[in-house]
Amino acid sequence: MNIVVIGGGEPGKFGHDFCSRATAHGHDVRVLSHKKYDSCDSRHMCADFAVIEDVRSKFLELTASLDQIDLFVYCTNNGAYPDKVADLVSTGRVDSVAWHYSVDVHVVIPHMLSLEALKKMNESCAIVYMTTGLSYDFSIKTHEYSKYVGYSGLKGVQNHLMMGLADHNDRGAIVTAVA
Fold first, then answer.
1. Which of 5, 28, 29, 77 has the smallest C-beta neighbourhood within 10 Å, fewest atoms?
2. For residue 14, what pLDDT is reported?
């Protein structure tokens, strides 16, 4: 199986552990990270997620030799503004640069890469977004999580993007989210 994971570089995190297991089971695993790790090689590349075109070009380079992408997993979480109480009080200041970066990482980039992945997919292939229950379960009303507006909100947009891609992709690929 040809597997492409966005965000599978950090040891101890789901993406890295998933990639290690899939590789151990004989799958061809390609990883695109936002940080350069010692494991970076022709199957594990690093892109600057602040530059959308860099992400796209590295993804295309990473997947150029694949005729088919059987599984595309988007599980990166490179921060999401606003994410602290200071961002939500009257003395706070809106950081539009941080907002735009968060939207790019959690919405624009997964959308763009999903469309690129679909070009190498069919009805036997799948796209999976790693999201969060915080994005749809409003019964979680603890102060501990309510400050993560950017994370929960943008993962909510990912859930809606996933539903749109599931209903309308022209390749018949399965598209789902795991929270």
1. 28
2. 85
Pairing of strands 71-74, 2-6: parallel
Q: Where are the beta strands (DSSP E) in the chain?
A: 2-6, 28-33, 44-46, 71-74, 126-130, 174-178
Q: What is the pTM of this model?
A: 0.92
For 87-110, write each residue's pLDDT tens digit: 999 999 999 999 999 999 999 999
Residue 149 and residue 101 in contact, taking contact as beta carbons nearer than 8 Å = no
In which region does residue 85 sit, left (phi positive, over 0), alpha (psi from -120 to 50) or beta (all else)? alpha
